[in-house]
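Hi V.,

Quick status before I head out on leave. The structure for the redesign project is tokenized and pasted below; the design run finished overnight.
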């Protein structure tokens, strides 16, 4: 048995949208697939969790043991973005102040859940073990080092790291030319 679902099995999962060349590990957990849209050339590795409102663009990789909790606010990963292993993204969170009960087993009237959409724009890359909190935009080309905490929006083409993460230096843009060549090659194959 192949470790990834077949194309037919992926289509049978019931995604809102699913493009071509999508590889999803049989060991991944997908909750409410009807709320999840997947582009083309996407790979989701072992032991990942996808739950809630999630949109994945094209040429996306989600490394093993990563989790995306989109809730109702949503998570968007745009083209050529990716997560290394053990990354977690939250679009919603409980109130930790002690003024409310927490966790999904408690009726909503006793909880306060807040959050906002999380958007990873084109060419965003996230290092292993990173946690991204709700209501942030990681602008085009942002790179986040391993074991970082992203609790606010990040500017484009910077390299960030730390808890909380801070901009450490500029990121090169050579990959934009490589993106164009990659898409040209894909276009030639489809002709």
């Amino acid at each position: 048995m192949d470790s990834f679902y077949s194309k037919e099995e992926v289509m049978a999962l019931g995604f809102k949208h699913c493009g071509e060349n999508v590889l999803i590990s049989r060991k991944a957990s997908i909750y409410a697939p009807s709320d999840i849209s997947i582009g083309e050339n996407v790979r989701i590795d072992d032991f990942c969790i996808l739950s809630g409102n999630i949109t994945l663009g094209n040429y996306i990789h989600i490394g093993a043991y990563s989790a995306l909790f989109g809730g109702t606010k949503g998570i968007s990963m745009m083209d050529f973005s990716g997560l290394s292993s053990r990354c977690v993204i939250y679009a919603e969170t409980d109130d930790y102040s002690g003024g409310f009960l927490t966790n999904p087993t408690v009726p909503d009237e006793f909880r306060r859940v807040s959050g906002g959409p999380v958007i990873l724009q084109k060419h965003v890359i996230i290092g292993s073990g990173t946690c991204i909190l709700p209501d942030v935009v990681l602008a085009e080309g942002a790179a986040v080092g391993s074991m970082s905490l992203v609790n606010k929006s990040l500017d484009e083409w910077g390299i960030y790291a730390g808890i909380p993460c801070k901009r450490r230096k500029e990121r090169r843009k050579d990959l934009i030319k490589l993106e164009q060549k990659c898409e040209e090659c894909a276009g030639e194959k489809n002709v």
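Above is the designed sequence. The first strand starts at residue 17 and ends at 18.

G. will cover questions while I'm gone.

Best,
W.
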